[in-house]
Amino acid sequence: MHRTLIASSIAACLLSACDRAPSEPTAQAAAPAAAPASINDVELIPREALFGNPERAAVQISPDGKYLSWIAAVDGVMNVWVAPANDTAKARSVTADKARGIRQYFWSHHPDTLLYMRDTGGDEDFHLFSVDLASGTTRDLSDFPKTRAQVVGVSHLHPGAVLVGMNDRDPKWHDLYSVDLATGQRTLVQKNTLEFAEYIADPDFKVRMATKARTDGGSDLLEPDGKGGWKIVGEIPFADSLTSFPGGYTTDGKTLYFIDSRGRDTAALFAVDTTTGAKTLVADNPRADVSDSLRAPTTNKVQAVAINHLKEEWKSVDPAIAADLDTLKAIGPGETWVASRTQDDKTWIVGYAAAESPAVFYRYTRGGKPEELFSVRPALDGKPLVPMWPQEITSRDGLNLVSYLTLPKTADANNDGKADTPVPMVLLVHGGPWGRDVYGYNGTTQWLANRGYAVLNVNFRGSTGFGKQFTNAGDGEWAGKMHDDLIDAVDWAVEGGVTRKDSVAIMGGSYGGYATLAGLTFTPDTFKCGVDIVGPSNLNTLLSTIPPYWAAFFEQFAKRVGDPRTEAGKQLLEERSPLTHVAKITKPLLIGQGANDPRVKQPESDQIVKAMQEKKIPVTYVLFPDEGHGFARPENNKAFNAVTEGFLAQCLGGRAQPIGNDFAGSSISVPAGADGVSGLAEALKSHTAAVKN
């Protein structure tokens, strides 16, 4: 569901590095007669092909159908390109970023104007920029220091403006502005003196609803009272706070869509009559939440919904597009999605991908056949990519853990998703933790499988997408039952012959980094080594240093992780902090951190590295001075993965591509433990850090 909110959902995966990107669909039917005898008999896929800049990504069409656009490199830095819709050979770059690159952009309805967002060095103070294609002028529409812009609305009814939340007045709370795209002038719509978490506007830019966090962890729903104030019209209880939210209005303002788990378990999509308040069920599923929707460009009415249990499946709720969705399904056995549509709805840009096939973008003229435009990573065409196999693992207390297993070619001769022989395994833990792992192309899992490892992704309790009971089962269970689920999944893999008990590594980012540290401290005998990427080591210091604009979500942290305002809460947080148990670490650990991370700040890594050094426990610490919560610059991501690859080879015995030139252009520094990974210290001697904010 596309949400037009002033407060972005921080209950989402904190480290989103999934690149839904390119290549022709690969059939799974023609299985080899026997698996290769050794992983060395399988072609090694270079890190550059997996983690370098994609050739083209994020393909869109302008609302008027005049232009195609995408993100591609200019001198190695990702920028926005535009071409006439009927002549991609005339493409030109329309942005000129020379540092981190641009990863988020979208079209306005103002003629020849697109918008993009960019932060500095990973600080997540995203500014909103406009680009006038005719004049070439780029304008910062949120040009204020220490300000995070959040787009609330772009509409064909107001083509010359955009609704934007900005927190320059008060870093905790976003005021709502209408910004003129021609002049950059902003006009105050709502001054957020009531500490609203989010505003919801209709396509006519009328603010129809707001939400406000309560001290019990729930939220109040408010509407304007017609007298200049606000009135409470409903509530979202704490139990539903991660699975219920308003999802926007139709253009005529007569219908409010609501993703709602109140009075049920899984979140369903309802249509609410704004005059009578009557609710009509649009779509639901007993095993998974409604995860996305497709809206008609002019009316903003929902035409299709997505449900993602094991795999994402789209269902039309408007007969007008049923035949279109059938046509798109025929592209291949993987997953399709609609990336953008023209305002007249005659032309769609569609993406297609499968686990062993990065994304390909198509132009679909309704009533015709999809026309292939671009493969995002054509360098992977013909490479030995492998399938991802959905699994359902039962936890020790009976919960169903939707998981995904990826096997190297050496372990699955008949391509049936069942291991023929045990191989080393990486337990790859997702971030959030209020997010989930999904089926699909994942460069990290393909990389690890190509190096000889099985990869297991587990949706442990606390993950979202499977109903509120499953999500809420993670409350208070960091390093508790959430971690038990990961251990149960490892036991499942050992019992199923996927791996051996002494051949498992744990790796992840954000919460996944915390899970790595917890794995090496709370269950030190389970894992042979760990890779922690921007993971918190001390939950008390984590919650005392969250970004100010997360104020509306603080009660969620307090009730789902632990409350640092009470003695009992502080004690729980200390007990569940890996730093408290650092002396129990006996296995090799690699830590990666961005110096500008606003969520899990650098001291989270510094303090556990220092504690390990004081106890003479070996650790390798990699730091990037121009990164934040994850490694956005491809040069830095590739550099860290080069270190990780050598580290895992030493630990698990897989193969490793030499570091070679993969530090080129990166800002990598290694404050501790460079001698702990073969070839790392030597590679650093000839490297000059390139810092680009």
CATH class of the domain at 388-685: Alpha Beta
Catalogue the unreliable spans: 1-33
Strand content: 25-35%
* Distance N to C terminus: 32 Å
What CATH architecture label of the domain at 388-685 applies?
A: 3-Layer(aba) Sandwich
The number of distinct helices, counting runs of at least 4 residues, comes to 12
Placed side by side, the strands forming the largest sheet appear as: 28-29-31-30-32-33-34-35-36
Overall structural class, as computed from helix and strand content, comes to alpha+beta
DSSP summary, beta strand count: 36
User: What fold name goes in the CATH topology slot of the domain at 388-685?
Assistant: Rossmann fold
Estimated radius of gyration: 24 Å
Overall geometry comes to globular
CATH superfamily of the domain at 388-685: Alpha/Beta hydrolase fold, catalytic domain
For the largest beta-sheet, the strand count, sense and barrel status come to:
9 strands, mixed
Helix-residue proportion: 10-25%
Mean pLDDT over the residues: 95
